[in-house]
Amino acid sequence: MKKVLVINPGSASTKIAYFEDKEEILNTNVYHDSEDLEKFPTIADQYDYRLTFIKDYLDKENIELTDIDAVVGRGGSLPPVDAGGYLVNDEMTDWLVNKTDVHHASNLGALLARGFKEFSHDECIAMIYDPITVDQFHDLSRISGLKGVNRRSIGHMLNMRAIAMKTAEDTGKIYEESNLIVAHLGSGSSISAHQKGRMIDLSIDDEGPFSVERTGSLCLKEFIPFCYQMTEKEVIEWTRKKGGMISYLGTNSGIEVENRIDQGDDEARLVFEAMAYQVSKGIGELATVLCGRVDNIVITGGLAYSDRLVDWIKERVSFIAPVSCIPGEFEMEALRNGALRVLSGEEEAKEFSI
Could you tell me the sign of the dihedral formed by the alpha carbons of 320, 321, 324, 330, in that order? Predict the structure, then answer.
């Protein structure tokens, strides 16, 4: 029996789970006081605080840390890497603390995995799996349309690859022999094309469909003058936190929008259906990347709980391939599965190196 601790840091909380093989013993989200977090100048400075906070919680839950075989953290903003598992080493932690240009709470995943490894036995491994910068693009995918500005592979990699593998398994196929399109819909959205086990292209949240809080792609002719009225910080805030659905309807709650539609709000219906319309366009674009040879289309993420939104998308894209829906996210299970594959020898963990 292999014992795995999973750590997935968020901006105001940390998801933690403990498994014995695939049996879930503990899965929870511990919340941190915002006043405590505000004391730390950087994300990396939160390390000791979160380590102690999580350890105290696990001690109260009687989780025996000395018996753990693997600690796997959410992969943060590393340089582009191939998919799979990576052992946490000095070079990785140095990058996440001192060199990354994206300071996100997920950067703490590797640091905390390494910290908790110290509480266990010598054979325990600390690793990450499918970080947000997984890059399996081919050369055509990287061309943006402006020399010097390359398309970047970054998004909901962990959940999208996990959903793709699960879909292949559920349909009696092998992921490495399948062509799939996965649409992760949430506060930000990513749509990915999977060709024979590799995620060769993406429609990410700054160039694809608008989402709950993000604008997606915009008409440049209309948007460029708008930019000159704001600072760079304000532009980023409007496009990534105040854009999309919330800019039209004043809410980031899909449930509230659905209630408004049920009450006859025509504007709410128009905007929500427009989101489905743009997601459908994104799926259609990626179908051409796979030359139309698509085995399955899968819709996942928080917004996939909306039958109305999913049905609108299905109506437009079901001619391409069968469409299934797996709502929510499966990051904790995906991290666990990655660790178990490494522990069993089914998959070899890589050494991170720049």
Answer: negative
* pTM reported for the whole predicted model: 0.91
**Cα separation of 221 and 264, whole Å?**
34
Residue 175's closest CA among 195, 145, 190, 158? 195
Q: Which helix (DSSP H) or strand (DSSP E) does residue 343 occupy?
A: helix 331-344
Among 237, 233, 240, 258, smallest CA distance to 187 is for 240
Q: Domain residue spans in the chain?
A: 3-135+331-351, 157-327
pLDDT at 23: 96
Whether 84 and 341 have beta carbons less than 8 Å apart is answered as no
pLDDT tens digit sequence for 112-144 = 999 999 999 999 999 999 998 999 999 999 999
Cα–Cα distance measured from residue 298 to residue 285, given in angstroms and rounded to the nearest whole number: 15
The domain defined by 157-327 folds into: Nucleotidyltransferase; domain 5 (3.30.420)
Q: What is the pLDDT of residues 226-278, one digit of tens each?
A: 899 999 999 999 999 899 999 999 999 999 999 999 999 999 999 999 999 99
Residue 8, beta-bridge partner list:
15
- Cβ atoms within 10 Å of 39's Cβ, excluding its own: 10
Task: Return all residues near 326 (Cβ < 8 A) that are at least 6 apart.
Answer: 163, 166, 167, 298, 299, 300, 304
81 SS3 class: strand
For helices 47-60 and 108-117, angle between their N-to-C axes, nearest 10 degrees: 50
3-135+331-351 and 157-327: same fold?
yes
85-87 and 13-20 beta bridge pairing:
unpaired
Superfamily grouping for domain 3-135+331-351:
ATPase, nucleotide binding domain (3.30.420.40)
Question: What are the structure tokens assigned to 60, written together?
Answer: 């109260």
